[in-house]
Design goal:
Strand content: 15-25%
Order of helices and strands: EHEEHEEHEHHHEHEHHHEEHHEHHEE
Number of strands: 13
Radius of gyration: 23 Å
Shape: flat
Length: 365
């Protein structure tokens, strides 16, 4: 399980430059899980995790297989998209299929690159896109409520519940707030997700700054950081131009280039990790001489469901999970050492998998 993040933004904010950097980076990644272009505007990249390399080194694994993340370059966003301007409906449908939104905001000044609104104001740009998503949701909600009327009158329980949730979303949007601000009871979460409202998607603001501000950010990115914190969203600071340059360099050259700019890692790595955190995802590992592999799960996932990410049979026939914490695997220099030190545990169906766990599943076929 990976996740899909849609990259959105107004024209001339650096969205395409950022996506191009992502796809070039992906194309250069390890051949054991080659870059996959599903469509011209969809690409998969490795989720960076130094722990995987460490585990593979200890186990002498022949292959290293990281977990993956899908980026979708969503084109066609202009003011009025909710009413069909630009690519309109296509843009909205593409967002609906994503787990989260990476909203690229222009935080740089450049007289040679015009802004669609004639000014540089990332907070206003963010509000423009948010408004388009909310307007599209409102139209969808009103249409669905009208279609539910007959079923609600007939006492259809599912229709009554759907109407209640739609009205909660409608009230929030009419008050000028996105649907993700609505507090939903645990019992309603599944039905809420099935509504597939655009403004429920978590947002990661990507502040595209000039090269000189890549390591520190600037006044505009600070405004975005404040806005993101107030909303409960996330943000990262990146220079799309730098990322595009880095993507064309060899590994050693990349590190030298980053050091000269005062950066410890590529911005794309931070972007991927921030998206991971935004969706409350975590990683567990399976390690052996054949391969070391990372697997993505949601925080709070129980051992049988974690096993099911590998194969449905693992979940259905789950017996137990032999578990070693990452730190213990490293300090004990592998599975044998962890076992001898009493650091390997047998966990059952109620065990909540922790980030970094090294797992081996036993199951009935």
């Amino acid at each position: 399980m990976g996740f899909k993040m849609g990259i959105v933004g107004l024209p001339n904010v650096g969205k395409s430059t950022l996506f191009n950097a992502l796809t070039k980076t992906a194309a250069a990644q390890a051949a054991n899980f080659p870059f996959c272009t599903i469509e011209p505007n969809v690409g998969e990249v490795n989720v960076p995790d130094a722990r995987l390399d460490t585990l593979a080194g200890i186990a002498g694994s022949k292959q290293i297989i990281p977990t993956r993340m899908t980026f979708v370059d969503i084109a066609g966003l202009v003011k009025g998209a909710s009413k069909g301007e630009g690519l309109g409906n296509q843009f909205l449908a593409n967002i609906r299929e994503c787990d989260a939104i990476a909203h690229v905001l222009r935080c740089f000044e450049d007289a040679d690159i015009t802004h669609v609104e004639g000014r540089v104001d990332p907070v206003a740009d963010a509000e423009t896109i948010e408004m388009e998503l909310m307007l599209a949701d409102l139209e969808s909600i009103e249409r669905r409520l009208a279609n539910l009327t007959r079923k609600v009158r007939g006492g259809d329980k599912e229709a009554v519940e759907q109407e209640r949730l739609l009205n909660l979303a409608k009230a929030a949007i009419e008050a000028g707030k996105p649907a993700r601000t609505v507090e939903i009871a645990e019992d309603d979460r599944k039905q809420w997700r099935m509504l597939q409202l655009l403004s429920t998607k978590p947002v990661l603001y990507v502040c595209n700054v000039e090269e000189s501000c890549a390591s520190t950010g600037n006044a505009q990115s600070e405004r975005v950081a404040k806005m993101a914190a107030e909303q409960g969203n996330s943000h990262v600071v990146i220079s799309a131009r730098i990322e595009e340059e880095i993507s064309q360099l060899e590994d050693e050259e990349q590190q030298m280039f980053l050091s000269e700019l005062g950066l410890t890692e590529a911005g794309l790595d931070r972007l991927i990790r921030a998206g991971y955190e935004l969706l409350h995802l975590q990683t567990y590992f399976t390690v052996g001489p054949k391969e070391a592999r990372a697997w993505t799960i949601k925080e709070g996932t129980l051992a049988p469901q974690a096993a099911g990410v590998i194969h449905g049979d693992f979940e259905r026939g789950f017996i137990r999970a032999e578990t070693i914490a990452y730190a213990d695997y490293v300090s004990c220099k592998g599975e044998v050492g962890a076992k001898e030190s009493g650091k390997m545990r047998a966990e059952g169906k109620t065990y909540t998998v922790k980030d970094g766990d090294v797992l081996h599943f036993l199951f009935n076929t």
